[in-house]
Specification:
By secondary structure, this protein is mostly helical. The chain has 2 domains: 1-98, Leucine-rich Repeat Variant, CATH 1.25.10; 99-168. It has 10 helices and no strands. The chain has helices spanning 8-14, 19-32, 38-46, 51-61, 70-78, 86-96, 104-113, 116-127, 135-148, 154-167. It is elongated. The model has no long low-confidence stretch (mean pLDDT 95).
Length: 168
Amino acid sequence: MNTEKIDEQVKKNLFSAKTDIVISAIESVKVKGNKLYIPLLFDLLNSSPEHEIETEIKNLLGTIKDKTAVNSFMRAIEDDKYKGIRKAILTACWQNGLDFSTFLPVFVDLVIHEEWETAFEAFTVIDNFEFLPGAEIIDFSITKIKTAMPNVSNQQKYFLNEILVKLK
């Protein structure tokens, strides 16, 4: 059994005060491909790092292909601690092409309740679903959308109508 663990030196380097050390640590994470670093990358991104570091993290998150990383992304999306970077996390979700379809109701909630840019990224995740979830999740999401329709902005109505078209 392959048990992944975090290299404590890489973890320390991710939070170094020196940009070149942080970039090198991110590169090391990219090469190792260990999903256990994802929450650390979210924490680092959440700390408002220098632009170069932010760009490297976003690039890495957008290229993750490990299917088991989906839960790490979803935990961060649902955690208010990461509200400030939620848009960036959602962008990474549609860029990396992982299957988030079983979490359709979460993305629908984000379209309904978040400000425009974040709602747009959540919509984009749904729009890029390669596969749709099971009928029960679709039915639940359709009900959620229809219930929210009278109380949302025109922009949100557009997104929600497009989602309904995709789900039918």
